[in-house]
Design brief:
Blueprint (H helix, E strand, L loop, with lengths): L9 H17 L8 H52 L7 H6 L4 H5 L3 H15 L10 H55 L4 H6 L27
Helix pairs in contact: 1-2, 2-6, 5-6
C-alpha cells in the first residue's frame, strides 16, 4: 500500500477511504476492520461540507456588504451635489471642504476603517451650525446607511472567522484520517503477514501529488469592494 501524499485533496482522501471501506466490507474474512476508516471518512466529509457552507456564508456576507457600500457611495455622491448647490457652486470654499475634504470616490476607495471614519466625519460636519439647513435631511439617511454598513462589515469579519475555524477543523480531522488509514493497513498486515499482495488489494492507488495542492482547499480570497 502506498499512502497518499500529506497534501492530497479532500476528494482524494474521501475516495481512498471509501474504496478501502467497501473492499473490507466485501470480504467476510476481514469485515469489521473498516469501522475506524469509515468513521474517519464520515467525519472528514462532514468537515468538508461545513467548510463549504461557511464559504457560502462568507460570499453572502460580502454580497450584503457590497450592497451597503453601494448605498453609502450613492448617498455621498448625492450629498456632494446637494452641498455644491447649497453653497452656490463654490466647491473650493472652506464650507465645502469642511464637509468633503476629499471626493466621495476617494472616500469609498479607502480601507474599511478609514472609509467609516470619513463617513462619520461627514455626518459631524453636516451637524455643524454653519452647514446649510437644506442639507439637514441627509443626516438621518446617512446615519442609517452607516449603521447598516457597520453591521455588514462585522458580518464579513465574523464569516471569515468561521471559515478559518472550519479549515482548522479539517486539518485536525485529516490527521485522524491518516491514522485510521495506517491502522487499517497494519491490521490487515497482521492478519495476513505473508500475503502483501492481498493486503494491497484492499487499497486503491492514491493519485500522485500536485505541486500546488493546498492542505485544506482554503477559503476564497476576499477581494475589496470599491464603488465607482
Amino acid at each position: 500500500m502506498r499512502l497518499p501524499h500529506l497534501k492530497a485533496s479532500l476528494g482524494a482522501l474521501l475516495e481512498l477511504a471509501w474504496y478501502a471501506t467497501c473492499a473490507v466490507e466485501a470480504d467476510p474474512d476481514v469485515v469489521g476492520l473498516q469501522k475506524q476508516i469509515a468513521d474517519a471518512r464520515l467525519n472528514l466529509r462532514k468537515a468538508r461540507d461545513a467548510r463549504n457552507d461557511a464559504s457560502d456564508d462568507l460570499v453572502k456576507a460580502r454580497a450584503l456588504r457590497g450592497i451597503a457600500l453601494l448605498a453609502l457611495g450613492k448617498w455621498l455622491r448625492q450629498l456632494s451635489l446637494d452641498t455644491t448647490a447649497a453653497l452656490g457652486g463654490k466647491k473650493n470654499s472652506l464650507e465645502f471642504t469642511r464637509i468633503f475634504p476629499m471626493p466621495p470616490s476617494k472616500m469609498m476607495a479607502q480601507s474599511a476603517a478609514d472609509r467609516m471614519l470619513s463617513a462619520q466625519n461627514v455626518l459631524k460636519a453636516l451637524a455643524h451650525p454653519a452647514t446649510p439647513k437644506s442639507l439637514a435631511p441627509h443626516i438621518k439617511t446617512g446615519e442609517a446607511l452607516l449603521k447598516a454598513l457597520t453591521t455588514r462589515e462585522a458580518g464579513v469579519v465574523a464569516a471569515q472567522g468561521v471559515v478559518k475555524d472550519r479549515i482548522d477543523d479539517i486539518r485536525v480531522i485529516r490527521k485522524t484520517w491518516f491514522t485510521a488509514y495506517r491502522s487499517l493497513e497494519s491490521a490487515l498486515a497482521l492478519k495476513f503477514p505473508d500475503d502483501a499482495e492481498r493486503v494491497n488489494a484492499y487499497f486503491d492507488e492514491p493519485p500522485k501529488p500536485k505541486a500546488d495542492v493546498s492542505l485544506s482547499e482554503p477559503a476564497p480570497v476576499v477581494a475589496p469592494v470599491v464603488n465607482p
